[in-house]
């Protein structure tokens, strides 16, 4: 059995272009020397620029796969990507915590694709109020952060940490904001500016990199900083929408 690298499960969609979802997550985890395991939430038909269709898998199948993998491998961190609604997400969280109550969960709340394909049923978001504290880190962009905040999921009473990605902000472009225990930490671009090529699946890459660093034992702030360095390199890797990992 693999003993040198920690195990991380990505629970996400399958993107045949390889730019986002499971394939992208596994590429990222392997590059940062973490053993990536994968569970598919949905089969999508998409390219780097457009999502054409989506077919959700059964939550029962997903829970079964969580149980099998987590009973066989020592999984300390789970990254969650696209899910169809809050009930779907709650079932996944419950299954993960039942297998390992100490497992850290990183949720990248993919509500819509860049091409405006809707993944998540927003009307179900209030159901997460009693479950949000079971998530270690949420990684929304500015638009997603505002949606979650407006339904009361990101109040100061919650112990869940949040990394607000800075790719969509108008001021200080590229500066992320980590909110941990009510304290905000600004994570500025490493080179002082934010010149990059837009990339399909960049949110998947960042959240997976952070999950991998957490599995390697880094504290949350350090994991986010290292994840940011990884995504900066990824965003500059090529002029196309599909980035490369190195």
CATH third-level topology: UDP-N-acetylmuramoyl-L-alanine:D-glutamate ligase
Helix- and strand-based class?
alpha/beta
Number of domains: 1
CATH class: Alpha Beta
Task: Compute the number of helices.
Answer: 6
Would you kindly provide a written description of the structure presented here, covering whatever features stand out?
The chain is an alpha/beta fold and 246 residues long. The chain is 32% helix and 21% strand. The chain has six helices and nine strands, in the order βαββαβαββαβββαα. Strands 3-2-1-4-5-6-7-8-9 form a nine-stranded mixed beta sheet, with helices on both faces. The chain starts with 6 loop residues before the first strand and ends in an 11-residue tail after the last helix. The model has no long low-confidence stretch (mean pLDDT 91).
Defining key terms:
246 residues, 9 strands, alpha/beta, UDP-N-acetylmuramoyl-L-alanine:D-glutamate ligase, single chain, 9-stranded mixed beta sheet
Could you write a compact summary of the structure shown?
With 246 residues, this protein is an alpha/beta fold.
Helix-strand layout with pairing:
Layout: E1 7-14, H1 21-31, E2 35-46, E3 51-56, H2 59-72, E4 75-80, H3 86-99, E5 104-107, E6 137-138, H4 142-150, E7 161-164, E8 176-180, E9 183-187, H5 202-215, H6 220-235
Parallel strand pairs: 1-2, 1-4, 4-5, 5-6, 6-7
Antiparallel strand pairs: 2-3, 7-8, 8-9
Helix pairs in contact: 1-5, 2-3, 5-6
Pfam families: Phos_pyr_kin (PF08543)
Domain Pyridoxamine kinase/Phosphomethylpyrimidine kinase: 15-241
EC number: 2.7.1.49
């Amino acid at each position: 059995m693999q003993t040198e690298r920690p195990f991380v499960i990505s629970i996400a969609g399958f993107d045949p272009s390889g730019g986002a979802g499971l394939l992208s997550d596994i590429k990222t985890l392997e590059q940062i020397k973490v053993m990536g395991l994968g569970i598919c939430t949905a089969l999508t038909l998409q390219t780097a620029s457009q999502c054409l269709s989506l077919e959700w898998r059964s939550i029962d199948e997903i829970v079964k796969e969580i149980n099998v993998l987590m009973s066989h491998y020592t999984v300390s961190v789970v990254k969650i990507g696209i899910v169809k609604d809050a009930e779907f997400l709650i079932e996944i969280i419950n299954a993960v915590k039942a297998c390992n109550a100490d497992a850290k969960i990183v949720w990248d709340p993919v509500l819509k694709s860049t091409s405006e394909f809707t993944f998540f049923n927003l009307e179900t978001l209030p159901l997460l109020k009693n479950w949000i504290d079971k998530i270690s880190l949420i990684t929304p962009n500015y638009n997603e952060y505002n949606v979650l905040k407006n339904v009361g999921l990101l109040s100061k009473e919650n112990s869940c940490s949040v990394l607000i990605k800075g790719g969509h902000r108008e001021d200080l472009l590229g500066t992320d904001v980590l909110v941990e225990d009510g304290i905000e930490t600004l994570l500025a671009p490493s080179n002082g500016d934010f010149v990059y090529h837009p990339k399909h699946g960049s949110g998947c890459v960042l959240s997976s990199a952070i999950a991998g660093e957490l599995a390697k034992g880094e504290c949350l702030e350090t994991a986010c900083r290292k994840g940011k360095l990884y995504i900066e390199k990824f965003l500059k890797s090529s002029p196309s929408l599909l980035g490369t990992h190195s």
